[in-house]
């Protein structure tokens, strides 16, 4: 009981936090209006006994979800990453979008099931409140959609591939825009999917009303319920796929080209042998996180390569971890040019004793010589046949750069424990925001447009 | 006409594919139009004949007549290669199919009348294939306008064309062909059934034509195939016709008066149209041919429909008929007119030559800035393996692993039960049973989802799913959790409405329905709790005991959905234990299996609830017991889902896995104590899938330490703490110097802006080091 109260207390606290922002008042206002409207509609649904109106009401309920998502997204912006949620709460937004789209699809599935049962035995539908309910719902939905700026859903509906319904309407709207060019700002390149489905649902309800009034075809009600449910599926499916892919930690497909280019650049950096185990995924909507293992030549300067790799990738990937790794680093270098990097004060084997107790299991490869036995962590098996890197790579004279760089040896003894850490996160993110637009200007800019409009360009080919 | 036609056959055979200027095509277009008009005439005529002649006899005569004529023209036996036995078998199959399709077509004709049949059935293959392409491949952008027109036209025919006269007709005793039970079962008027039938058989016809292309090559030309096909189908129909004429007495007064109309129909519908179409397809492009042909056909059909019943044409017609039938059936109505216009528009759009060509994928931009497309990708990807093989492969995959095997078996059991229920419901005409069957199907969708997720989990990692597909399982668990929430919500709402107004429930049907149902679910619980304890290490005895406690109760009732998920103290108890086991076991959990298990459990609870409420209602007449029971169940389902949802949410939100939190903290402390390590930052640890915990960490170390050694040590420490996919970034002071150097080099311009401040901060940081 006590834990419950504390949960509610926490919720209340968070709610106050959100409510302290004036912008969220409007959302709350619309939310309460929506609740009222939904209640009314549900009552009318049971009084008209109409399945189609019920299906349409679920769209209103979906609007309620989207308002909640909006609240969550404004809460997310206020929250800092905590210790357990180390990536922050941005993903909550994605989860909320996913959950609401899936919930409304499940609702549509339920409608489908009920409709199948109704096809067996069609009850009579009273048309009294049908049209009223339709217009009330349409009005409220459009009002909510147009007056509340719903960031997460706007983003998803832009970024997700266009739905089946949108594509079919796009053709019509293109020819309509040929007649009335003024409409093109609204209709092209594709209509807002939520507005579209609300309109389409209202239209099918109107047709239902007409048919029932004129011809007394009660079965039309069930048919239009099925139609609305299918349209709901069509509209919501791309969005849930998009947000589901974010939740599954996948590489967004529109980034891949850009990412490949960067990785190719990275692999041509001096000293880099290969990049592997690259994992890139989106944290919230938009911000990329990732990690990669970079194998380098034995004589390369780790810190320099790391800096270069990070510098290349950081504009695109904001939360980046690069693990540098060398094959048999325990063997002394043949060239003996150790000027640049940390010349080990103690011989490697001597210090190995210190940690042998900690990691007894995973450190046998200390003295293994071949390149086949690499990092025990890497999941991708490396080619066992690859010879030791320093022989395989004939490095011309241009790799003098790492050697030349000064080794700031006199700094090393300064403790930089507390202070040195602070410049981790904030400057990077600052740089990111600036950097995103610049180094890959054409690509970065083209990306959004491509994501949104690709279906239309394709369809005209 | 006859002469013209035969001369064209000859010239058509001799001329190859020659680029003909547009003006020279006129004669072919005229020919096409004339043949289409004649065809329309023939269809109208055959509608009249079908009133007196049985449909099978009619088709037999058509096929036989055209076979005789075609044999004369085409000489399929004397010319061309010898047909092997195997090809004969194929021919017979082909003929059977073509018989079925013409039976369906002409049966539709008797139902809907000639005009509607022409509108629906006589679309060219090109048009229909284009239409299906637009509708079912969401490749997008196609002429969806045309598809919309087509659908509107069909709907117009279905709904707005109130063939009221048809109703009057129905009172007349129809000819031999009374409406079959299949169509009257649907409860729609005759002509609507006909519309549906015709649309279905149109699709069938197009599929048949596409499939028969290969055979026509084998046999040696479409014409030879057509001739042989007519002959063989006449043979196929022969026994049926003999039986029919022996058993039923014919309504035909004199066959001799029918010879002329039959000849006309055979000539116009079967032969002329076929040859003209063949010629025109050779001379012009197919879509163009289809466009002109369809327009001509539809327009002439409209005209004929208007004038067919006119007294003037009455005199011209060769058949005399009882006058009262003539003017009353299948007249023009507004709906038909509108739909005809829509049909014409849609087919003209669909058959217009598409300038767009293939669809390609955008590859990039050329140096001049024009977009470059890749056209072959789709075509290559869609070469799928054959269906049986695909099924076999996926079955093998399913049966490989324990989880998916379990789900699969249970799904089969559930589906079998559902279909038995459905069939029994249809047999006994019990709506309750049928609706319960659909309810079960609805529940099965959760199982299907779980099965699919269990299958996907084992897919190999790809470029996009770089960690592998393991996380799908968690997402599927989450979706199943949401599913259960939705179910609980609906049960709740339903039971609240029932609480306010308890309906009368017929309890008689409940018991027989549910005998098998509960058993099925109990088997499921048994299987899944095993799988479960398998994964979740503990509490197997508890679950086991619970399932052996066995009951003899039942599954969903049909009184309504409200109580189809019913509950019971015992079930709830079992579940409590279960949830507890999870709280403790945690680590080896599998969200997907948990979701499926909870679903089965909810079903079982439902059936138990139904039993309880049935007993209460029967014994004490407490109608209110049912909604209260459902309310109780809804709450139980809801409460049981919350832990699953919470866990799945935590994983999806990339929370540090709670069961490893302590280990990780101590590991981090240990890392700080490693010699040479100054500090760490940005430690991220999260559970990616059931058996993968990923992590990234950045370390700052002293300049004189070997990075690789630190990496190994840290990796080992974190591996002990459970992290098995790790990236460690080791940074020395040199790194920050390089970084600041690179950044200032890069950000010369930006240094002026507000970014300046943070940069300075960074430099400060470096200086301090």
From TrEMBL, chain A:
Primary location class: Golgi
Alphabetical list of PANTHER family matching this protein: ZINC TRANSPORTER 6 (PTHR46531)
GO cellular component, one term: Golgi apparatus
Membrane topology according to the record: Multi-pass membrane protein
Description of how the protein assembles with itself and partners: Heterodimer with SLC30A5; form a functional zinc ion transmembrane transporter.
Protein's cellular compartments: Golgi apparatus, trans-Golgi network membrane
Family statement: Belongs to the cation diffusion facilitator (CDF) transporter (TC 2.A.4) family. SLC30A subfamily.
Function: Has probably no intrinsic transporter activity but together with SLC30A5 forms a functional zinc ion:proton antiporter heterodimer, mediating zinc entry into the lumen of organelles along the secretory pathway. As part of that zinc ion:proton antiporter, contributes to zinc ion homeostasis within the early secretory pathway and regulates the activation and folding of enzymes like alkaline phosphatases and enzymes involved in phosphatidylinositol glycan anchor biosynthesis.
Superkingdom: Eukaryota
Gene Ontology molecular function: zinc ion transmembrane transporter activity
SUPFAM superfamilies linked: Cation efflux protein transmembrane domain-like (SSF161111)
Keywords from the UniProt entry: Golgi apparatus, Ion transport, Membrane, Transmembrane, Transmembrane helix, Transport, Zinc, Zinc transport
Gene3D superfamilies for this protein: Cation efflux protein transmembrane domain
Domain Cation efflux protein transmembrane, chain residue ranges per copy: 28-248
UniProt protein name: Solute carrier family 30 member 6
Biased composition, class Low complexity, residue ranges: 337-352, 369-383
Residue numbers spanned by region Disordered: 337-357, 369-411
From TrEMBL, chain B:
A Gene Ontology BP annotation from the UniProt entry: response to zinc ion
Ranges of Basic residues composition bias in the record: 559-581
Name of the protein described by the UniProt record: Zinc transporter
The species this protein was found in: Lates calcarifer (Barramundi)
A Pfam family per the record: Cation_efflux
Spans annotated as Disordered: 538-586
Gene Ontology terms, MF aspect: antiporter activity; metal ion binding; zinc ion transmembrane transporter activity
Source lineage: Eukaryota, Metazoa, Chordata, Craniata, Vertebrata
Compartments (UniProt record): Cytoplasmic vesicle, COPII-coated vesicle membrane; Cytoplasmic vesicle, Secretory vesicle membrane; Golgi apparatus, Golgi stack membrane; Golgi apparatus, trans-Golgi network membrane
Membrane-protein topology: Multi-pass membrane protein
Gene for this chain: SLC30A5
